[in-house]
Fold each of these.
Amino acid sequence: MLLAMPELPEVETVARALRPRLAGRRIRRVQILSRRIVSGPAEEFAARLCGRRIRGLRRRGKFLLAELEGAVLAIHLGMTGSLRWNAAPGPHTRAIFFLDRGRLVFDDLRQFGRLEASEQAPARLAGLGPEALEISAQELRRRLEGRRAALKALLLDQRILAGLGNIYADEALFRARIHPCAAPARLSAARLRRLHQAIREVLQEAIRAGGSSVSDYVDPDGDPGRFQFEHRVYRRTGLPCPRCGALIRRLRVAQRSTHYCPRCQRP
């Protein structure tokens, strides 16, 4: 099975689809079908949410944050989680939110997703770095300069840059013509600016395409993303580079499969 954690474009797609549907709705009942996905006792989790009105929905990194009256519901989709609007429960349904109009179904095959309810956003979100779509070129350079670790590993570190993951790090590095194992300390300011531009471009294009569906990801209406058809290197090992024709290679960086062109992205 091919697995890929939903990243910024997928989570942003979900947020944009659900925001107008959830705003102003009141949670009438919460049914937890798997205790593994909630923090604390399931009964307390459900009781904390019941009766509260949803004020809004936003994204922070790879997290969805539903802002309620007097509470925040933090949702992380994990590897295979999805939020389905008015869907029928299925064999992998782990939680159902019954609203005063409509319902939200949380499916998760692998059960790595997490639901957390608290008075404020979880403290661990405070450790996230700037948003990948909002960080300036100067700030990205400041956070990377002087570091000798592999650039791909640093881009996956959510404390440095929030929201970027394996798919879009590979695609951005290819567009910027930078090897995934390059050390930022050895990159010029111009190349780092090119990387910053590539990150923004690939994320914006992916959002417009509804994200990438390479495993279980679907949007709240059950529709897959389309950006997987635009991938230039990700999971294209052995296929020709769309730029130069060299065969795409794969290596491991930070315990993640990494795809690159050996000719366009020289060390």
Amino acid sequence: MAELEAKLGYSFGNPALLDLALTHRSLEAEDAAEMSNERLEFLGDAVLGLVIADELYSSGALDEGSMAKVRAAVVSEAALAGVARELDLGVHLRLGKGEQDSGGSDKASILADSLEAVIGAIYLDGGFDPARRFVVEFWEELVVDRAAAPGEQDYKTRLQEVVAKRGDVPEYAVDGFGPDHVREFTAEVIVAESTLGVGTGSSKKRAEQEAARKALVALGEADA
């Protein structure tokens, strides 16, 4: 677990909590001696929501309605699964054989739930401060991006949800050009080794959102 702890940026005093956070209910169903991460998931969901709400409130930049939209976007299943994949969480999950054989280690729902359980485990092991540091580190860029345009559709999340049903994960290649004060970015979104969309924008995230929007159009998704 040392590799995962290094990616989390947190070392557990009680490693059993991390083991529990990584244990899916499918393993509990196959082995009565195991306990699933569902209770930790419940706790982690509350901690994550509180930290995100506090960050949004402290910024003082958004009204209540906009804060609610941003929070909903960044704690969605797709957003959580994206962070989990960034951490390679799937390779560490403890799944029942049936779930493992059916690709459970990369299912968005399982990844999202397990990541919330990990947040709950960090909270129980070290308290609120390390849990908050973890959330801020891995969600800050996403929160800033969504807060910049809380009313816009989150095309990246939609695209991730669409291609996940096919067993794929979108990847982005981003290039920047121009002087720093007027820098522009071009993003290319690739799915199954094929380019589905190219977008430009004044930030990496804006370019990625535009690329994702075009990819959704290419896939025939409505209202993209």
Amino acid sequence: MTTPVTFGIVGSGWRAEFFARLAALLPEQLTLVGAAVRRPERAEEVTRRWGVPAYLSPAELASRQRPEFVVSSVPWPVNPEVIGTLADSGVRVLAETPPAPDEAGLRELWAEVGERRLVQIAEQYLLMPGHAARREIVRRGLIGRPTSVQVSSTHGYHAVAMIRGLLGTGLDMAVGFGPVRVDARRFTAPLLDPLTRDGWTGAEEPQDATTTLATLDLGDGMSGLYDFTDNQWHNRLRQRRIVVRGSLGEIADDTVVHWGGARTVLHSEIVRSQLGHDLNLDGFDTEHLTFEGQVVYRNPLIGLRLMDEEIAIATLLTATAAWARDEGPEPYPLAEACQDHLISLAIDRAADSGTPVVTDIEPWASR
């Protein structure tokens, strides 16, 4: 890019703050030119905090500033309206997950804007360093054809995106756009909840927490296992686990077992090069991840001292900027996000009803 890509933000919550703050760290690539919020007093606050003009509607932001793309970071029910308004203005959009709250909303949104290909969705999980390294190992064929993914880390559409994304890596096919059978159950058990997004809770006694378990039959021998407990993002008493199984081995977190040739099974680790430990004085930063002596992920933002979530979001932002100028591929198209949320909603329905749910083939499947 010869000049920074201009963008705007609709919304002002904690996630919108991520986008504004990270863009400020990348001045050669991105320039925030404005924001849109609902209330005048909020507009004044945003202008003071971000140093950009704030407007009271997405349409006014688009017409006054003419950004090359706009981030929609608003509550679920509002997202389709914001996306539609911006797309009608001819503006490219990076919208927070999910693109619409329910199945009907997904179908209506796709009918309105899907064919225009102006909308990407801000799904960042597979851009986190650890997951990106696992995906690269799958892409290189080291565990053969991917057949099963187990995720116990994040919830709903994020977990489904990980399952479908890893299963589709390295394959010349789209995974999970056909009928998907979902079986799910919920279980309640005591669990101490010492930490939330707001910090330490002070809790000292376990309280009931719900765990949702689901199996996904995505067809062609491919499956997913979904395992999520209330507040698992923040509760350090529950570890995160990811397993990717293939025809020649499997990845379990940072351990990989795979076929090495005649009568040879290899066990290796994904190793992170983390600067700033002990007598390393290069600053605290993720440098790269390696597997069997080869780099499988290199931090594209080294020097900014970002945590993994920030690396993923900043990577998504820069990929969206390249797409906005037709200089890069679509980072995460609306069709993928619609399918991920459709399956996530099916998990909830199956868990609520106690009976299997089979998703239909939707219009976005022919994207």
